[in-house]
Design brief:
By secondary structure, this protein is of the alpha/beta class. The protein has 3 domains: about 90 residues, Rossmann fold (3-Layer(aba) Sandwich), CATH 3.40.50.720; about 200 residues, 3-Layer(aba) Sandwich (UDP-N-acetylmuramoyl-L-alanine:D-glutamate ligase); about 140 residues, Protein-Tyrosine Phosphatase, Chain A, CATH 3.90.190. The chain contains 17 helices and 20 strands. The strands form 3 sheets. The protein has a 9-stranded mixed sheet, with helices on both faces. Strands 15-16-20-17-18-19 form a 6-stranded mixed sheet, sandwiched between helices. Strands 3-2-1-4-5 form a 5-stranded parallel sheet, with helices on both faces. Helix 14 links the parallel strand 17 and strand 18.
Length: about 450
């Protein structure tokens, strides 16, 4: 951690990761300028800690040595293009964390994918802790990686969730083992296309000593795994071959690291085949680190899923209501929808350029009705009209606080005994809600109000 004193560093973004980066750099003696779009409690606190605040700056100060960008800042943002033109190195908070590691750093077990990342990294954290490790889930899951790397006492191993944005600006990161869970179109507006998005995800496997773990049941992942430079291990919902983890007679089985039978698939929570796949990925990462099979099983049993992920809310008049507000893209919605036989689907929001035609075509046969809301509801309505023209569809156009109550009332009217009313929006939430959690909370409140009546 030497060599930072007196260096001029710009931190772009004062969110959680930007704040962590700025504070770490200030502690190391760097001269830090924080750029954000508007003043906030964080910018005020960073100014009090010694940082210079430059609101909405379009170029780094003269003499800037490094720019640390927060996830989500587009590469074509004026500040970043100006930095590149001036020859200033641009890295992300994850790359900074990698460079701040000490002489005997904790190994990183990293994962990425379009969907399931947070569930999987939490499963991995539970397995590591069941093995007695001082471990923590960090990265896109909430805790900034800089904070995890610089924690005292130090962690023994890090379970690192990485988004495509974070990987895009982390060229040196070389995890001990790394997994890609799945790949489907997402964030195309940011990356400019699927190939660029997938290429950013692939950077997680760049190390020649990294154990590269991938989903054998996902064509895009399997194809790209074959080119990974390190040892290649995969997981599948079928019976595993050599160098694979998979399912045998309802049990998770490790034939890559010699662990044998690990746990019963029925014990995996949240339910659904996609979460069994997530459990296999977490187990592969844990086994690559030498976690014993018994600890893998115990970690899965002790794992408590985060809210809004395929979460049962209530049974009302024989109808099950399930909150999967975290299904923020079509790929996630597909995994959720195929977990149930007959569904009244609540969908809509910001699609971010993702196509929905294939999703609707694949699930049309299990839909009992659909309730659409949000900015891009028309795209979903068009796809349903094409692939399920006789399906009852109701569009809710209101965007006020009572919109979700109306949505749930309409869904209840479309559902019959044995059906599942499923919030799996296939879209982001920010057109109507603060985030997917607020959307899920609104759904839960509306369902509970319905149940009370």
């Amino acid at each position: 951690m030497t060599g930072w004193a007196g260096r001029l560093v710009v931190v772009a973004g004062a969110g959680a990761s930007g704040e962590a980066a700025a504070r770490a750099l200030l502690r190391l003696g760097a001269e830090v300028t924080v750029v954000d779009r508007a003043p906030s409690e964080r910018t005020e606190a960073l100014a009090a800690a010694g940082a210079t605040i430059a609101l909405d700056a379009a170029a780094p100060p003269v003499g800037t040595d490094l720019l640390v960008v927060s996830p989500g800042w587009r590469p074509d943002a004026p500040l970043l293009t100006a930095a590149a033109a001036a020859g200033v190195e641009v890295i992300g908070e994850v790359e900074l964390a990698w460079r701040l590691r000490g002489p005997d750093p904790a190994p990183w077990l990293a994962l990425t994918g379009t969907n399931g990342k947070t569930t999987t990294v939490r499963m991995l954290e539970a397995m590591l802790r069941a093995a007695g490790e001082r471990a923590v889930a960090t990265g896109n899951v909430g805790l900034a990686v800089v904070d995890a790397v610089t924690a005292e006492p130090p962690y023994g191993v890090l379970a690192v969730e990485l988004s495509s944005f974070q990987l895009h600006s982390a060229p040196s990161v070389r995890p001990a083992a790394a997994a890609i869970l799945n790949l489907a179109p997402d964030h195309l507006d940011w990356h400019g296309g699927f190939d660029a998005y997938a290429a950013a995800k692939e950077l997680i496997w760049a190390g020649e000593k990294t154990v590269a773990i991938g989903n054998a049941d996902d064509h895009e992942v399997a194809r790209r795994l074959a080119a990974a430079p390190g040892r290649q291990v995969s997981f599948t919902l079928a019976e595993p071959g050599p160098d694979q983890l998979g399912l045998v007679a309802g049990a998770l089985v490790d034939r890559a690291f010699g662990g044998g039978e690990l746990a019963a698939a029925a014990e995996v929570r949240p339910a659904g085949p996609h979460n069994v796949a997530n459990a296999l990925a977490a187990a592969a990462l844990a086994r690559a680190q030498g976690v014993e099979p018994a600890a893998v099983a115990r970690g899965l049993r002790e794992f408590v899923p985060d809210p809004h992920r395929n979460e049962p809310v209530a049974d009302v008049c024989g109808v099950r209501y399930v909150d999967d507000s975290k299904a923020t893209n079509p790929h996630a919605a597909l995994a959720s929808l195929t977990s149930y036989d007959r569904v009244v689907w609540i969908a809509g929001g910001l699609l971010k350029g993702a196509p929905v035609d294939e999703l609707v075509a694949r699930v049309a046969g299990r839909l009992a009705g659909a309730v659409l809301l949000g900015a891009d509801r028309a795209a979903l309505a068009t796809a349903i009209a094409r692939h399920a023209p006789s399906l009852p569809v109701v569009t809710v156009s209101r965007t006020d606080d009572g919109a979700m109550s109306e949505v749930v009332e309409v869904a209840a009217a479309l559902a019959g005994p044995g059906d599942t009313v499923l919030l799996a929006p296939a879209a982001a939430s920010m057109d109507m809600f603060r985030d997917y959690k607020a959307r899920g909370d609104a759904f839960v409140a509306a369902v509970r109000a319905l149940a009370d009546r």
